[in-house]
Structures are given as C-alpha cells and as structure tokens.
C-alpha cells in the first residue's frame, strides 16, 4: 500500500492502446483458442447477483442492501478477419442471434457456416433476458477470443460498403474468462468440489454432532439415507452455535418420502465446522460427509521463518484467504457472503502475495461497480466507493494490465463524477442522505461532518483517476484529476493538520474543528506517503504508539495500523503484535481468522456481534492480512513500476533468526532467503533493487554491491540469476 508516483515515462512505456476495427491476419486469428465472450462486466454483474442472494438466516433469504444491476439483454459482437483458406465455423450462443457476414444477413440460427478465404466482417447480435448474451465461435481461423469487439447499442446498421455502423455507445473489447469449450457455458459456472469426511462424530441428545475439524464451506452429504420423516441440520462455525438449534444462524429442515437417493446431497452450500443432525425415528442414515466447495487457485506465495507461531499464522491466513476467495473476493463465508468493497480491497493486496490471480480481482471490481447511472455509493458506503478507485490503481501497479483501465475508464469517470458532485462548499466529502460512512467498527467513533479520513481517501482516489486517465489517453482528464488531488491534499493539511500537536485531527462539524485524534487518517497518511519524515515520526509517537488514542479491535483496521508501523521500521514491534493478536485467536481454537477479536472478551462473548449470539464471522477475509504484511514488509518485495518491470526487495527480519518465501509476480516469483548473515535471492522477471542494511559492506557472488548511505547498500537483481550475499545484520 506504500505508493510511489508513476512517472509519465513509465506510464507511456507500458501503455498499450486498444485500436478498434483492426483486421486480424490468419496468424493472429489462430494464436488464441476459442472461448466464450460477452459484453465486458456483464458476466460479473450476473454472477454476483446470483451469488449474493444465496445468503440465508434461519432459512430466510437475506439479499444485499444495495442496488442490483443487470446484464445488457441485447448486444452485438463483431470481428474482421483475413483468412488464407475456406473455414468451417461452428456457432454456439447463449440466446437467439442475428448473423451478418460482409453486410448480408444469414437467415435462420445456423450451427455451422463456411467462411471463404479472404477478408471478412462478421457480426452477431445476440438476445438473452434470462442470463447474459454470449457466443462461442469455433473454426480453424475464425474463433471468438479477446480480439473481438462488442457494443450494447441496438441501432446497428450496415452501410453501403458493408461496414457495421452505430451511434452512441462505442465498440469495446469483449469480456471473457476461462470458458474454453462449447459445453462450458458462462451461465452454468460452478465452483469446484471435492469430497471431505468428517473428523469426528459425537452422540448428543436426540441426534449427533458432526465435526469437520476446521472451518469449511460446502454441501452436506447424507450417506445410506432411508425411510420417511423429517431431518434437521443446525450449522455452526463454533460448537456452541451448532448445538443451539434455537439461535444458530444457518439451518436446514428436510422432509423425506422414502424415495430419496441413498446418497443425498443438500442443495445449498454453507459455511460451518460443526453440524448438529436431528432425525425422526423413521429416518435412518449411515454417515455425514461433505463436498468441499472452492475456487481452484495455486498458492504461488509462501512464507516460513524461525518462529513456528508466525508460520502457523501465515498458514491459517492463507486458508482464510482461500475460503473467502470464491466467485469473488467476499467478506465472510457464513456472514455476509457478499462483495463488500472495503473487504475486497484488502483481499486484492493479500492476493498479490498469495495467489496473484488477476481474474479474481477484475471480477470483483466489476461486480462492485455495476452499471451506469450511478445513484449511490458502492455498497452505499462513502469510503467503499473510494477504496474501489485505489484498488484499480493497485491492480495496474502489480499487474501492468492497461486493458482493464482502457475498457472501464468510462465507469471510473462516472463514479468519480458522482463522488465529486457530493462534495460540500468546502470541497470536502461529508455524508448526505443515503450515505453510510463506515471507517471501522469502533465504539465511540464519530462519523458526522467532514472527517480527515474520507478526504484522504478521496485524494488518493483522484491520484488513481489521474493515472488511469493518462492510460486511457484522456489528457484533459489527467490534468483535471491531478489538479484536484493536489488542491485537496493542500486543503486536507490546512484544515486537519495540527502543527502544534503534530497530528492529523479527526473531524470538523459545521466549520468547527473537534478536539479528537484517531488513528485512521494518521496511519493512512504514512503509507500514502503524504507526511514528511518529521510528521511521520510525530504521528508514530503521538498516535500509533499512544495507548490513549481510541484502540482498534478489528483485523480490518489492524491491517493498516500494522502496515503504518512497518512503513516506519517497527517490524519487531509488529511481529509481537501479530503474535499477540492473531496468536490470541489461535489460542482460542481458531482455524480461520475472525471478523473481530477483542482479547478483553471471554467465552461465548467472542461469538457475539450485531446484537446476536452468533453474529460474528469466524472466517473473514480481512483477518488474513499477515499474508500481505509478511510479503510486503518482511520479505520486503514491492513493485515500483507497473507489472514488476522494476521492484525493490528490502528484507527485514524483525528479530527473526531467518525467514524464506516466495512473492508472486505476473509471470513468475521473487524467491528470498534471509538470515542474520546471508541473503539469497532469485527473480523470474523485471529488474529488482535489493536494499541491504549491514554493519559492513556485503559481498556477493554476482553483480556489484553499492553504498547508499551509512550501513545501507544496494544490489541490482537481474532475472533468472541466483544471488548469494554475505552481510552482517545491524
């Protein structure tokens, strides 16, 4: 999260402009396999609608609290090809279509057509109101792939030259994912499953308690099911919840007529560790198992150290992250099972150090954004709209992908227009009717009026818009957003920075500054690099290390608090905090990390939240933040130019004897081992700069170690080269 400004030179060197209407040669056409394609963002909108309505509380549907959008029901796909010979092309479509080849309509709904050699223009207009319009075109030379274009404009017409024309909505690159056979229709997408057996069962009054050994997610299976009658399932992330049939949050009541299959799989997938089973005397079964449901992802990142507790924390963090990485990055697997922008933003960062799965980031960003017109903040939360912009900037920095920004820049701009229109006369955001200012779950945290935290997020969002506008080729917008961000930062410090106290104040209401200091804007100002060095040191001493300042009890904001301390070189202190906070959850038997942890609570208090005895999520995405902290601030790997064209490696043991791990990059990894005397590093791509703090000048087997300042040295890391450095830790 520590940002560095990308220079115009870097941006221009990576800018790949999409040129509409280009003709594909036969070589280019056959370079990509056929895949299902659709209007960009529509699959993600449709899938998120379908997924987020699955949340239930005691068998009642509990849908999201914000507006649903819909895919375009009618879209037009087009491509231009130049093929060396006749091509037989198979056509598959999700919805009826109109096919036009070289300006002439092909009658009927053909499943196979022959395209002669030479240059051709192909257009398909597809209708589907139930799911989303999509096509799969499969030929030797003519394939549906990322080179196609699409529009939602319904006024397509063919001019005398056979060219497809329209007014209004422009052609844009199609959307696609990994549906690479005709049978893998987007509308039939399912997560993967695999069978898991229970770890133990326990007879209880009237039934049994099944324990799967750890927090998990999937479909319950009943084996050897026979007879007629009723059977009830009571699920729990905790033993207490599963045994409390009157108050547990998820359950199933089933009725059988004797004709059911002996292996019966429940329809809805759920989160649980424990399941209480209660069956009528007329219903018999042999055992209970489950189909574990998951998104297949490779663990490309890793971390291991001389501290076994930290290793366990990393492992449980990775499992927590995987459980909450589903169709999208969601918040919790029991509650809410929704796509929240603030939660997702942290998941993006963890993802870059664990999976580096770019499609999951894209899907989540698109599901959150929805469609125009914008009538409310994302998730109805002011700060969550702003996290969305910052997430796009991070996505570009880590992946180097410009196509996403070029395609969806109009949606970025319309959302930013909405945010800017809601500023007050002072140029600040404050909540209007319908706005929710979240910041954090914290007792006694005021959120009315103008808060410094929201203005700081808006300033970063405007910087993200400036970078995105330049990538999209919108120079006027680039200048506009750059100016707005600079002006807002100046106002932010003029109004909220207290020079005498050396801190950022929290809130101004009706023009009157409130005498309150909180951690939020102060810690963000550190890793946003908005403070100078003296301001950072003042904030560190007077806010971050000050127990009198309102404490943070959620992993959500602990993430940022610990990041700010790491950015200030407090890695040893942070490791103690991680051992205490995340280790405290492990001491209480956590197998995944929670939505909130308060060490002052005890017993069943740890399960309570929102006024409900089991309202707290015991598997929450924001609880997995050690993944990011270990990769970014201990292994010390950070991209400094988009897509890891350049990057830094600043290992910091934080008091550990040794550590090792992998940090994924777009096409490889940075592999690192570090002890108090030796550093070994090898990277797959890009040019890295290894920063070493040592009592004397280090030696290396490859390259040249250069002095930066007293006890600080650097070494350039080239791809696919093993470096072994001897040094003396400070």
Automatic annotation (TrEMBL):
<feature type="signal peptide">
    <location>
        <begin position="1"/>
        <end position="25"/>
    </location>
</feature>
<dbReference type="InterPro" id="IPR008928">
    <property type="entry name" value="6-hairpin_glycosidase_sf"/>
</dbReference>
<dbReference type="InterPro" id="IPR048932">
    <property type="entry name" value="Rhamnosid-like_N_bacteroidetes"/>
</dbReference>
<feature type="domain" description="Alpha-rhamnosidase-like N-terminal">
    <location>
        <begin position="75"/>
        <end position="277"/>
    </location>
</feature>
<feature type="domain" description="Alpha-L-rhamnosidase six-hairpin glycosidase">
    <location>
        <begin position="300"/>
        <end position="632"/>
    </location>
</feature>
<protein>
    <submittedName>
        <fullName>Alpha-rhamnosidase</fullName>
    </submittedName>
</protein>
<dbReference type="Pfam" id="PF17389">
    <property type="entry name" value="Bac_rhamnosid6H"/>
</dbReference>
<dbReference type="InterPro" id="IPR012341">
    <property type="entry name" value="6hp_glycosidase-like_sf"/>
</dbReference>
<dbReference type="Pfam" id="PF21209">
    <property type="entry name" value="Bac_rhamnosid-like_N"/>
</dbReference>
<keyword id="KW-0732">Signal</keyword>
<dbReference type="InterPro" id="IPR035396">
    <property type="entry name" value="Bac_rhamnosid6H"/>
</dbReference>
